[in-house]
């Protein structure tokens, strides 16, 4: 069952916030060798979805993310974002698409070190003809939305890792993009902070924001509604999280581990006593 | 509107970027600072020199023409100067026939002893002149009267002296009516002429000397000879310098019987042509100086390009991020171009201030030149335009490099 490619992706009505990929191929020329990173990916993401894209390194996951984010062009295939074909646009037009439709969240935050949180959040608005006026007000609202209303004038160095990523999320939200595209957003955070950021994504998603998270961590993917798995440049599985066989396997494994850990804990508890007894006995012996 | 906004934003960004690296910015712009400072200094210096010399020439009289006999090169050693020197008859002929001049006087030097009562001075140059001399020299007669034609015609024993002579010969403040003994011949002092302050580069310039003028006829009677030392004339207009030269040459050649290939046995100099020559020379000096300055700005520009390349590579990730959030390549190009231009303009302004400061120091050190030492506005304009141009030209390559960065590669850059 696992690894069976879904032959027919859920059809999505084109419009604001919808994503349609059809037969996407990507070939790289590395020296004399050509690498076929994507071999026909078709994918629809509806407005308001929360999707995790998973895959091992070399699966084409990063390439797909670059294409989804309009940072790169497919060699072949059709990509429609908010009802607009983007697969044949030039660099300047793509920049405008990114500015208008996509909010990036990176593993390494990518904040400008010399700028305050507010200035960082305002950055995308600087390149937007539409949203320039009232940029600072808009940026303040975005920061308040991620719970950093009291840290607006702090520089990244004065913020914790989790706060930095919150600033990055606010920056991704500030343009009201069709999609937030997060690349391993918790990769540089400890598990508690990761949880915070994921919860932030969930909140934003509840407010109707489309979110695509690219990750290799099952537990992060588990927070999404849908998991798309890639292997060797093709989509090998596309299921709602609850019915994703691999994820279910993972959850079972986790549950077993937890149970084993719990029992191990009790076993260890059991062995401690004899050891103490031995020691006590040893103490008694001589 | 959007472009103005973007420009404003990029300028602000560039300033932030530069204030973050003040020392580096200073070192980088040193070439520009020196280049622009040199523009200011050379511009000021050449203008001051030009102003000074032209002022001197103007004081000297731009309409003056000098004529003197000259032994041409091929005849050197075979004939004496006195054989080709101008004769009074020639000067009279020019006075009556040359159309381009409105006054002329011979300058007939007699060296001798001048004596007033008990005080005497040896080796004083006594100059024999016509009354036209006043018209040409335009020297104010402060006391008494100028020479008149009758003084010359009647070979009167009258003389004009200058202030210096009054001091040297210990005469009364108003010496008119007193007499002087010149080579034991008695002369009545009829007037005092103002002493003209003149730079040493002119005949009669430099240190003020005792001057005594007598009618040329009297001077000839004192020490008779056929030739004069030189003749001084005045052009009808400054624009007639070349015309006058041609006319006088033609008249003198004809009267001397020179024909065809014979070299002229005289020389004619006009102050006007000296002014023109000097203007040409000072133009060349300015050009050469600006050429050298251009080289220094070029070197400065290479420094700018270098630091901008460093800046682009240091900020690769930032460029990647800016592109990811929607900066078009043109915007990135503009950002780096503006940064380079702002850097150069700051260097230019510092250079202008430095150069201006040095001019002020020069003014304090050379009080005599201070009226000519001012920074010409065109040097400031040239400095600003050139430093902006250097920024744009040398910032272009790094900016293009930044604009062309692939956002994916840039974001992965370590």
Write a concise synopsis of the structure shown.
The complex is a heterodimer of chains A (286) and B (414). Chain A is α/β, with parallel strands linked by helices. Chain A is 40% helix and 23% strand.
Describe the structure.
The complex is a heterodimer of chains A (286) and B (414). Chain A has 286 residues and is of the alpha/beta class. Chain A folds into 2 domains: 47-74 and 90-243, P-loop containing nucleotide triphosphate hydrolases (Rossmann fold, 3-Layer(aba) Sandwich), CATH 3.40.50.300; 246-280. Chain A has helices at residues 61-68, 91-101, 117-126, 135-145, 161-173, 191-206, 218-221, 245-284, and strands at 19-30, 33-45, 50-54, 76-81, 84-85, 102-105, 179-183, 211-215, 226-231, 234-240. In chain A, the strands form 2 sheets. Chain A has a 6-stranded mixed beta sheet, sandwiched between helices. In chain A, helix 5 packs parallel to helix 6 (191-206). The longest helix of chain A is centred in the C-terminal third of the chain and has 40 residues, at 245-284. Chain A is globular, with a radius of gyration of 23 Å. Mean pLDDT of chain A is 86; it is low at 1-10 and 270-286. With 414 residues, chain B is an alpha+beta fold. Chain B has 2 domains: 2-57 and 276-412, no CATH class; 71-264, no CATH class. Helix content of chain B is 57%, strand content 17%. Chain B has 14 helices and 10 strands. In chain B, strands 2-3-8-5-7-6 form a 6-stranded mixed β-barrel. In chain B, helix 2 (22-60) runs antiparallel to helix 13. Chain B is elongated, with a radius of gyration of 34 Å. The interface between A and B is medium-sized, with 25 and 22 residues.
């Amino acid at each position: 069952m696992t690894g069976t490619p879904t032959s027919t992706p859920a059809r999505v009505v084109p419009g604001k916030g919808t994503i349609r990929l059809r037969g996407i191929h990507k070939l790289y020329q590395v020296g004399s060798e050509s690498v076929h990173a994507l071999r026909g990916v078709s994918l629809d993401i509806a407005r308001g979805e929360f999707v995790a894209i998973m895959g091992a390194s070399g699966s084409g996951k990063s390439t797909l993310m670059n294409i989804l984010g309009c940072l790169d062009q497919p060699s072949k295939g059709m990509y429609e974002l908010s009802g607009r074909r983007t697969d044949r646009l030039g660099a300047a037009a793509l920049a405008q698409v990114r500015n208008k439709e996509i909010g990036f969240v990176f593993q390494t935050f990518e904040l400008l070190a010399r700028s305050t949180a507010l200035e960082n959040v305002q950055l995308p608005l600087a390149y937007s003809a539409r949203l320039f006026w009232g940029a600072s007000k808009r940026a303040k609202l975005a920061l308040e939305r991620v719970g950093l209303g009291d840290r607006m004038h702090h520089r990244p160095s004065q913020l914790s890792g989790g706060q930095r990523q919150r600033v990055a999320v606010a920056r991704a939200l500030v343009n009201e993009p069709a999609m937030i595209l997060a690349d391993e957003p918790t990769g540089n955070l400890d598990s508690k902070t990761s949880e915070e950021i994921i919860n932030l994504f969930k909140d934003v998603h509840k407010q109707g924001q489309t979110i695509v998270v690219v990750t290799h961590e099952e537990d992060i993917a588990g927070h999404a509604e849908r998991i798309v798995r890639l292997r060797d440049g093709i989509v090998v599985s596309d299921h709602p999280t609850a019915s994703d066989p691999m994820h279910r396997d993972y959850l079972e494994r986790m549950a077993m581990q937890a149970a084993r850990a719990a029992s191990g804990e009790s076993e260890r508890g059991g062995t401690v006593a004899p050891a103490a007894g031995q020691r006590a006995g040893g103490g008694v012996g001589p | 509107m959007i472009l103005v906004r973007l420009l404003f934003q990029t300028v602000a960004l560039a300033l932030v970027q530069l204030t973050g690296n003040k020392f580096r910015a200073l070192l980088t712009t040193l070439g520009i600072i020196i280049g622009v400072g040199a523009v200011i200094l050379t511009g000021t210096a050449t203008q001051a020199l030009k102003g000074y010399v032209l002022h001197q020439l103007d004081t000297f009289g731009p309409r003056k023409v000098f004529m003197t006999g000259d032994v041409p090169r091929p005849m050197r050693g075979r004939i004496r100067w006195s054989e080709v020197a101008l004769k009074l008859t020639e000067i009279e002929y020019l006075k009556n026939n040359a159309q381009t001049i409105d006054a002329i006087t011979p300058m007939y030097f007699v060296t001798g002893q001048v004596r007033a009562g008990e005080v005497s001075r040896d080796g004083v140059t006594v100059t024999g002149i016509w009354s036209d001399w006043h018209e040409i020299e335009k020297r104010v007669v402060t006391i008494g009267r100028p020479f008149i034609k009758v003084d010359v015609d009647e070979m009167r024993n009258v003389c004009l002296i200058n202030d210096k002579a009054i001091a040297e010969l210990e005469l009364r403040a108003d010496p008119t009516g007193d007499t002087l003994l010149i080579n034991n011949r008695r002369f009545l002092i009829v007037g005092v002429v103002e002493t003209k302050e003149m730079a040493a580069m002119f005949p009669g310039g430099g240190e003020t000397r005792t001057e005594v003028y007598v009618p040329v006829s009297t001077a000839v009677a004192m020490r008779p000879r056929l030739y004069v030392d030189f003749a001084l004339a005045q052009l009808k207009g400054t624009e007639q310098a070349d015309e006058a030269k041609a006319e006088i040459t033609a008249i003198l050649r004809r009267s001397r019987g020179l024909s065809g290939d014979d070299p002229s046995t005289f020389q004619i100099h006009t102050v006007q042509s000296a002014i023109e020559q000097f203007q040409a020379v000072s133009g060349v000096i300015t050009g050469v100086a600006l050429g050298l300055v251009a080289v220094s700005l070029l070197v400065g520009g290479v420094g700018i390009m270098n630091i901008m390349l460093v800046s682009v590579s240091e900020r690769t990730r930032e460029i990647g991020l800016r592109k990811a959030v929607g900066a078009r390549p043109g915007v990135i190009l503009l950002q780096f171009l503006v940064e380079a231009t702002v850097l150069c303009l700051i260097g230019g302004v510092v250079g202008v201030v430095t150069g201006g400061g040095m001019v002020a120091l020069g003014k304090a050190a050379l009080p005599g030149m201070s009226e000519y030492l001012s920074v010409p506005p065109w040097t400031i304009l040239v400095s600003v335009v050139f430093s902006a141009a250097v920024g744009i030209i040398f910032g272009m390559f790094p900016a293009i490099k930044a604009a062309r960065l692939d956002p994916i590669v840039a974001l992965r850059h370590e």
